[in-house]
Amino acid sequence: MLSIGAQAEQRYFVQNQQENDTLKFMTEYRQFAKYVSSCKTLTKQTADSLMARQDELMHWYRKIKPQLNDNQVEEYNRLKGRYTKKILEYRGNRLEDGIGATGDSIAKAAGRAGKAIGGFFKGIFEK
Questions:
Q1: Fewer beta carbons within 10 Å, N or C terminal of the chain?
Q2: Which among 31, 18, 32, 28 has a CA at the least distance from the CA of 63?
């Protein structure tokens, strides 16, 4: 059994270690969010890399969350919101590009179909 002094010392060590872990996590997440915010546009490769890093940080967050104070949890969620906003912009742009390309394909196909139908009827009614 540990003496009262040794128990206090052990609690102090554990508390200090937890504070260091939370500070390290918050520093890492701040840097991540700052980098994400600084990206003007995202390429697929960059977005994939950011999503993988976010997954790593999310696993770390789940482990460390009980040690975070209320202000740290609030800051984490605010920073995560910045990341989410950037990724949603990226996904929206990709979807918009895809819809535009699909619309162009449909227009071309409709134009070709119109020409084919028009040519068919001209052929029927031509002398």
A1: C
A2: 18
The pLDDT tens digits of the residues spanning 2-13 come to 566 555 565 555
**Which of 33, 35, 41, 55 minimizes the C-alpha distance to 91?**
41
Separation CA 53–CA 32 (nearest Å):
8
Which one, of 80, 40, 43, 42, lies nearest residue 58 by Cα?
A: 80
Tokens matching residue 13: 């060590």
Spell 69-101 as b/e; 16+ CB within 10 A means b: eeebeebbeebbeebeebbeebeeeeeeeeeee
Tokens at 1, concatenated: 């059994």
Task: Give residue-wise pLDDT tens across range 85-114.
Answer: 899 888 887 765 555 555 555 555 555 555
Strands annotated E in 45-91: none
User: Measured between alpha carbons, how far is residue 39 from residues 18, 36, 55, 85 in Å?
Assistant: 32, 5, 19, 12
Cα separations (Å) of 25 from 2, 34, 64, 96, 102?
31, 14, 8, 35, 43
